[in-house]
C-alpha cells in the first residue's frame, strides 16, 4: 500500500527503531533490512505522475514516454495492517554462479516478537496509544537436505483456543489488551507420522524456513 495521504508520517513507525537489537543473523535484523528506507536515484528514479501532471498537464496530453518525469524518491515498505496471524518466510537459498545454493545458517527468532518497529505510524488493527504489537510463536517449519532433495518437518504448539483471536480474524477488532508473555502450551515435533513432545529450547534452535506467530491479546 502506497501512503499518499500524509507525507509527514509516510516514513514514521509505530515504535522507535533505534531501540532494536540488530544482531546479525536474527529475525529482527532480517525485518529491519526488509523495511529499511531505500533511496531511488539515477537509473532507479521513480516515475512521478504528480510531477508529470504539474509539468505537462493531464495524462491525455502526454503522447511520448519521454515526457514522463522521473524524480529522486525514498521508498520504505512497512506493515499497514497488523494481521491476526503473522507468517514469516525466510529465504533459504542464494545465487552461486549459475546455480542456487541452500543457506543453512541459523536465524535467531524469539517466542514473542514486537512488530511495532516495522509497522507504519497509522497501522490499522492497533488500539490508539499502543506502541507495541506483540505476537507469540506457535509454529515452525524446518527443511533438512539440499536444494534438490530433502525433508520438511514442523514444530507446533498445542494451546488453548483463543476466542479474542477469532474475533480479530472474523471482525477485524483491535485487541483489548496486550500480554507480554508467550501463550502457554506444549511444543511437539512432527515428522510424517512421528510426533514427539519437545522443549521450547529445541524449537528455538531449529533451522526455521517458515515461522508462524499469532497476535497476543
UniProtKB/TrEMBL annotation:
Lineage top rank: taxon: Eukaryota
Q: Which GO terms describe its cellular component?
A: cytosol; nucleus
Per UniProt, residues of the USP domain are 1-216
* Protein name per its UniProtKB record: UBP16 hydrolase
Concerning PROSITE patterns, the annotation shows: USP_2, USP_3
Q: Keywords in alphabetical order, please.
A: Hydrolase
One matching Pfam family: UCH
Biological processes, Gene Ontology terms: protein deubiquitination
Organism in which the protein naturally occurs: Chunga burmeisteri
- For the keyword tRNA processing, the answer is no
GO molecular function per UniProt: cysteine-type deubiquitinase activity
What gene is behind this protein?
Answer: Usp16_1
InterPro entries associated with the record:
Papain-like_cys_pep_sf, Peptidase_C19, Peptidase_C19_UCH, USP, USP_CS
